[in-house]
Amino acid sequence: MAFKRISDLGDLTGKTAVVRVDLNVPMADGRVTDDTRLQAVKATVDAVSMAGGRVVLLAHFGRPKGQIVPEMSLKPIVPALASVLGRNVGFAVLGDVLPDAAVVVMENTRFFDGEEKNDPDLAKRFAALGDVYVNDAFSCAHRAHASTEAIAHLMPSAAGETMAAELMALEKALGTPVKPVVAVVGGAKVSSKLAVLENLVAQVDHLIIGGGMANTFLYAQGYDVGASLCEKDLKPIALKILAEAKIAGCAIHLPSDVVVATEFKAYAANEIKAAGDVQPGEMILDAGPATVAALAGVLAECKTLVWNGPLGAFEMEPFDTATVALAQAAAKLSGAGELLTVAGGGDTVAALAHAGVKDSFTHISTAGGAFLEWMEGKTLPGLAALG
After folding, report:
1. Domain span including residue 251
2. Of 15, 42, 189, 273, which one is the catalytic site residue?
3. 20 an active-site residue?
4. 239 shares its domain with 352
5. pTM of the predicted structure, to 2 decimals
6. Is the pLDDT of residue 125 over 80?
7. Is 160 a residue of the active site?
């Protein structure tokens, strides 16, 4: 995966770098409640500054759909960003004279109708803000937008520091991984991750399927899943994936025991049963202890792990048990240097944080759609434009 970095852009003294970042942060009462994405911007701003350059930041916030929506302005983010960067940060609307500041945040790119249409004229207006372009927003790399794709063709371009770290981690995970490789794919529906599963069976040695997705595969193999979430119409596709995995030499792991309840709520009365003993009216809400022990054994045999999605209804105790236990097993192996661990996606990050291991994985991507499309083996427009 070849790409240029900021250092490849040379001496930036007297130049301005137009940097696409992710400032789509959670807000409450006009204040930033989680500055994780703001912290991710710092390395690139520092790198440009050390090269002598000034920074103009492009970013979106929410989904204004080409309209000016005051509640989605990036201006309220400026104080928090200035605090994180330890620099003077200005704010401007496209067309304004830029303020005299080391870093300038431009107003929401999605206030322009041409942003999501990848409009070349809008891209030219963005490009006119500086001399070089840096994309540091992997989370937006799967979108061919004016600020992520078209602009990269108009000026010298490179990946930002956070983007570069992400790309190198992903390359180690699925590009040129140390084998054996295991992937954990969980979540509610097979239909939402069908392309991921089809790509992974040809890429990994072990594929662990959890959450509601596992129910569909159990059903396809003749198990009664009771009242569990299950896409029964996808039985032929599930069987096809199982067959493809067998041909590719990929071992698919499904729950052998499960935790069932008759109510979908936290602390609902529950019982551990063999996967084949689920009764009508019972819902599978988590994988059982025997399954977790077996899966931990699989991780111990592998060198690389890619994780996307929980193993059960992790947002409700005690149905978070399997996800937490396996995440902690992965973190222990990662800490011992025995397993390279890469995870991504909103639910996954939340689950790993809940398990207390968010900082113990080798790399965690906060990207949702981009991470999934990377797992699907797709070419991401924002990355391809940097090549």
Report:
1. 177-375
2. 189
3. no
4. yes
5. 0.90
6. yes
7. no
